[in-house]
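[09:14] KT: can someone run the structure on this one? pasting the chain below
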Amino acid sequence: MRTLLPLALALATVVAPALSAQSVFDSELRLAPQFMQYQIKSPSNETISELAVPVFVSIPFGSRFTFDVGTSYARAKVTTGSTLSEINGLTDTQLRGNLTLGTDFVVITGGVNLPTGRSSVTLDQLTAAGRIGSDFLAFPISNMGTGLATTGGIAIARPFGDWNFGFGGAVRHSSTYDPYNVPGPTLRFTPGDEYRARVGVDRGLNNGRLSLGLTYSAFGKDDAGGSVYNTGNRLIAQAVVTNSISGADVTLAGYNVFRAPGQYASLDPAGRENIANGYLGIGLHMLGTLVEPNIEGRHWLQNIPGVTSGSTTTADRSQSSYLGTFGLRTRIGVGGLAAFPSVGYTIGQLATLDAQSTPVHADFTGFRAQLAIRVAP
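[09:31] RB: done, structure tokens below
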């Protein structure tokens, strides 16, 4: 019921950027329609796809306060033989306000998650809703809705010589909702509060920049129909290095997400997990624009705790999944509009179980296409 934090290649540090927008006439619109599909071969034999259209608007009110609103349309499908599971519609809507104090040194943030999306799924939607929540496959929209929630946080940033240092904290409180619309008794789900602490540093590096960040997320106890549990806290490390080498813009980025051991709603133990991701992009100035071939690699290590059933006990074991993506991105600019079309092809292996519950790997391939658009005055 709870997935890892959505992660992009950009480093989400708490170092506060300088604000240049002054009025509503400096508002900015961003949208990024994208399609992603994976074909997972035997023994799973599944095709998972998602079309997502996120829309985000940022509206400044003076130089100190900025208001953001964002939502998405998503359509996810899973095909297994002749069986189809599909879910589609609007997702939840996020409202956020940022107030800057001092000379960009303190930023206070408050946000509300409005339940405009589908937080309850039917039996025929269950497979599609579950597959897009995979942190390893990293679909652009990981859930359709999670009910009403509020978030508050504060971040502080200061320069120290050539370095900028920032730290901050945030708390998220979510309300109770019904995750399943199925026959029988209603299952009420109350997520535990999330407490997040983040520290980040960055500095100039030759013609580019170095950014480092570390985030720790602690979660209160979740309650699913009276079953109280915690799937484990998270530690996320992120790094980005940019520079210019022989006229090419080079970006090297990575993140590592570690989830501590926990417990599922069934009260079975949840083993620790680790997802490591690396990215290399080389921006070439050609054809009057920027063309960026890139490569990305990801590894997912899972610890599977042993279980006892009757007189049979299985030992702890580990399993690994991995993927590699080869991509191409470019930039198109016309007036106040900037577009970033990109495509990528993925190959990999996914740890799973066969019909006899024996651990095996399923080969898979994937394809993604995106058109990120930014419209500003």
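[09:33] KT: thanks! Residues 1-19 have pLDDT under 50 and may be disordered.
[09:34] RB: yep, looked fine to me
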